[in-house]
Hints:
This protein is an all-alpha fold. The protein is built from 13 helices and two strands. Helix 4 crosses helix 9 and helix 12 (286-307) packs antiparallel against helix 13.
Amino acid sequence: xxxxxxxxxxKKLKRLHWWLLVALNIAFLxxxxxxxxxxxxxxxxxxxxxxxxxxxxxxxxxxxLLIPYFFLSPSSDQSHQxxxxxxxxxxxxxxxxxxxxxxxxxxxxxxxxxxxLSASTYSLICATQLAFNAVFSYxxxxxxxxxxxxxxxxxxxxxxxxxxxxxxxxxPAGVTHRKYVIGIITSLMASALYALxxxxxQVTFEKVLKKETFSIVLEMQIYTAFIATCVTIVGLFAxxxxxxxxxxxxxxxxxxxSYILTLVWTAVAWQVCSVGxxxxxxxxxxxxxxxxxxxxxxxxxxxxxVVFRDSMNGVKIIAMLMAFWGFASYIYENYKxxxxxxxRRKGLGEGNAxxxxxxxxxSC
Length: 364
């Protein structure tokens, strides 16, 4: 925690400006994540078949993050210093490389899930990442597992089970029952792996990097995305899918220009989502960022209903309501913890201490 003499720069903002900044980052996250999922489904619906290309666009837009990174003012980038002795560059490089490789694998699982599921079903299944995050945080980050959080885990798990046993009537055209089940399994695996990544990244900041600043968060995002992009490009060529890309573009239902724009805007949407995630981590906390990120996955089915006319049967409606209930339980529990911490800080005369900014990456 920062000492009282080191006031977090965002504390200097007027309350209205702070809320506007929070609202802007929430908009980036919600719009970016919803747009990336819908564009990914659009790519498959209109003739796209390359899972490696769908995986590549999830990280290939990372150079966009260089803009805020290079224009970041060092004087405004106050450090939450955990220790004065961070790990050596070789160790950090190894960790970033491993995380980048895992991210590439996780993105591939997401791509397979989206290929075999409708956008609404895919999003509701991926919303279970909050439940997985609670479990991994308990075992890895030593966070408390209260009754409300357990309630959230159980409800989100049941929500996913409802969709898993639901019939596959809303599966994309040409998807068999076997592929539908594969889509459910890979989406669950991707959500679990992503939650594990969040916990491991938190450990990396606490035990290895030993400081938390906006620039450090951006660095991790940029370097790991670069590694993931390189790994995906190798996979694209090693699998031979690169040979099919020209034919895929030529046969794309809405035209070649639409094919290129779909891929470009999908890459941009993922990075807009990343900016929102990073912004909320810095302005509020990683927990708030993760909850909003997961909440957007429960909102996406509504967008899919409008854009793709996805079916919204009774099972899906119940699953979505259960997901919102799970989120509410999770948020309320952490609201209580935050209120308790604020009272404790006020009692200790540390009312000016910076908010907790323990960092983790996003579902994006």
